[in-house]
Amino acid sequence: TILTVPAIEAQVRNNLWPVFSPDGQYVYFSSDRHGGNFEIYRCDIDGNNLIRLTNSSDPKMYPAVSPDGSKITFQSSDYGTSAEIFIMDNDGINLVRLTDNSTYDGIPSFSPDGQKLIFSAWDGEEYPEIFTMNIDGSQRTQLTNMSGANWQYAPRYHPGGTNIYFEAGYNADNHLMMMDTDGTNWVDITP
């Protein structure tokens, strides 16, 4: 048997952060395929029917799909004080900015019931903590609060809603952590 590999175009394109719709029909991802700026795209699971969902001057990163598949949330802008969180319908319509401040807000993800977002943000310090808010941007709540060069970022709910998993780091020593949904009872699952 001879293995053949499809030819890859010489043009460099970055396609990052893929996530799937709950029904398994679509892939959502960020790509710089139409220039140097990352935008959110959707295609069928086999790569057909590519649709560009965003088009603006800021890079769009870390898409996440709601549990019912109707909404997409993402981070707009790079890591820094201009990073904000947006939400839109799964076809790119009804784009709404959820955060608007001078601190980093990013890497959002939905709660299992689709009513909240969990995300990384600065709390006045230079290292990220973990926050939640309603999907309309209200009731911003800080769950972690570590002093010093500690990072708490990229949070995700357990599908059952029982725990939150996140990356925790101190001076490039990174671990995956688990905690209760109120931010208590941390467990290092990668000691």
What does this structure look like?
The chain is mostly beta strands and 191 residues long. It has no helices and 16 strands. The strands form 4 sheets. The protein has a 4-stranded antiparallel sheet, with no helix packed on it. The chain has a 4-stranded antiparallel sheet with strand order 5-6-7-8, with no helix packed on it. A hairpin with a 6-residue loop joins β11 and β12. It is globular and about 45 Å long. The chain starts with 14 loop residues before the first strand and ends with a strand. 30% of the residues are buried.
Summary of the model, kept short:
The chain has 191 residues and is an all-beta fold. Helices cover 0% and strands 46% of the residues.
Number of strands: 16
**Share of β-strand residues:** over 45%
- The low-pLDDT segments are none
Structural class: mainly beta
Largest sheet, order of strands side by side? 1-2-3-4
C-alpha-based Rg, rounded: 17 Å
Order of helices and strands: EEEEEEEEEEEEEEEE
Compute the separation of the termini in Å. 44 Å
The overall pLDDT, averaged over residues, is 91
List keywords for this structure.
single chain; 191 residues; mainly beta; four-stranded antiparallel beta sheet
SSE topology:
Layout: E1 15-20, E2 26-31, E3 39-44, E4 51-52, E5 60-65, E6 71-76, E7 84-89, E8 96-97, E9 105-110, E10 116-122, E11 128-134, E12 141-142, E13 150-157, E14 163-170, E15 173-180, E16 187-188
Antiparallel strand pairs: 1-2, 2-3, 3-4, 5-6, 6-7, 7-8, 9-10, 10-11, 11-12, 13-14, 14-15, 15-16
